Amino acid sequence: MVNAHGGLLEIALKLPKGHPLLLTNTTLGAQEWCHVTGTRSSEDGYYAVAFAFDNPAPQFWPIVFPPADWSLVQTEN
Predict the structure, then answer these.
(1) pLDDT value of residue 77
(2) Helices (H) and strands (E) in the chain, counts
(3) How many Cβ atoms sit within 10 Å of the Cβ of residue 43?
(4) CB under 8 Å to 14, separation ≥6 — which residues?
(5) Which residues pair with 37 in a beta bridge?
(6) Total structural domains in the chain?
(7) Tens digits of per-residue pLDDT, 57-68?
(8) What is the pTM of this model?
(9) Cα Rg for the chain, rounded, in angstroms?
(10) 3-class secondary structure, 43
């Protein structure tokens, strides 16, 4: 899971809250500093590590996010 403010990784290391990370997107050649916001045990001995970018980085991920004013439209069935 990813967004402009961070994401969730599954890794083999249990990292403490606040631990700094330097993420690298090798496809884009981009690097962003972030920090761990939480860790929990996952399957197969891995850990789900939630992280937040030190500065919002919507261009770090090669995906398109909806605009801030985007809202759902309810339709009749």
Answers:
(1) 64
(2) 0, 5
(3) 7
(4) 39, 47
(5) none
(6) 1
(7) 888 887 766 666
(8) 0.75
(9) 15
(10) helix
> Tokens representing 38?
């939480």
- In angstroms, the CA 49 to CA 37 distance is 8
Answer yes or no: are the C-beta atoms of 33 and 21 closer than 8 Å: yes
Q: Which of 4, 35, 8, 7 is nearest to 19 (CA)?
A: 35
At 45, which amino acid appears?
G
Rounded-to-integer distance, Cα 68 and Cα 71, Å? 8
Residue 54 lies in domain: 1-77
Per-residue pLDDT of 10-61, as tens digits, reads 999 999 999 999 999 998 899 999 999 999 998 788 999 999 999 988 888 8
21 neighbors 36 (Cβ within 8 angstroms): yes
